[in-house]
Structures are given as C-alpha cells and as structure tokens.
Automatic annotation (TrEMBL):
InterPro entries: BMT5-like. GO terms for molecular function: rRNA (uridine-N3-)-methyltransferase activity. GO terms for biological process: rRNA base methylation. This is 25S rRNA (uridine-N(3))-methyltransferase BMT5-like domain-containing protein. Residues 3-113 form the 25S rRNA (uridine-N(3))-methyltransferase BMT5-like domain. It holds the Pfam family BMT5-like. It comes from Falsiruegeria litorea R37.
Length: 135
C-alpha cells in the first residue's frame, strides 16, 4: 500500500479523527480489527459497538458523497453481536454496510502481520469479515 501512496497512521483516536488528521478528506478510511478488549457495557451497549459507532460518526466529516469506510473484524462466535454494524451505521448516518468474507486459507500467499505482539487473531480464528460503508 505504501508504494501506491497510501498513508498508514498509528496511535489515532478512532473516535475523534480530526485530532490526528485535521480537516483532511479521504476516499477511503480503514479501521482494521477494532477491539476494546472489554465486554463491560458502556452506555448499555457492548463497548466494541460504541467504538465502531463513534468511529463511523467521526469518519463522516472526512468523506465526500460516495467515499468509503472499511472495517474488518474477526468473524467468530466470540464477537457475535459485539459490533452491531447495522445499528452503528444507522446511528452514524450511513446505510447498512456491504459485507465481504475473508478466509486466509483461500489465499496461499497471504501472510498475516500482527502489530501488537507475537500472538495474532489469525492463529485462533479462520474467518474474517469486512464491512464497507458508503457515505
């Protein structure tokens, strides 16, 4: 992606993108594997749902009509209902997302790189889903 001119930012507050990127606009904003690492309810909701909802709301200010927000998640029973993507989309003013599945076994050349530590979600799970929201 870098060779194609993409910028990769780390340490970004996904719920307030303007703190990091100002008023810049993008054709596509990507959030790979959001995870709060807690199941304790926040405002009566799973905190992962709250995070995704706030991220989508924050993203709207950085998109033009037709631009995209892409969120990838682990597709496993553990996360079932954690994100409630349709509800998050509605709260943030997006239509329901298009959903694409990804199974690493379908791509023999695929190599996963974890950015946090030696363990990675891909070692425990075999399927992932990508949600694409259109502004």
């Amino acid at each position: 992606m870098l060779k194609l001119g993409a910028q990769i930012k780390t340490g970004v507050d996904a719920t307030c993108l303007s703190k990091t990127i100002g008023q810049r606009r993008f054709r596509t904003i990507i959030f790979q594997f959001p995870n709060v690492a807690s199941r304790e309810a926040l405002y009566g909701q799973n905190p992962n749902h709250v995070l995704v909802t706030r991220f989508l709301k924050s993203s709207r200010a950085h998109l033009k009509s037709g631009d995209l927000v892409v969120i990838s998640t682990v597709d496993s029973p553990f996360y079932e209902g954690a994100f409630k993507m349709d509800d998050a989309a509605k709260k943030a003013g997006f239509a329901g997302p298009d959903i694409y599945t990804f199974n690493p076994k379908d791509y023999p050349a695929y190599s996963h790189q974890n950015t946090a530590d030696e363990e990675a979600a891909i070692h425990e799970h075999t399927a992932f889903a990508t949600f694409v929201f259109s502004a």
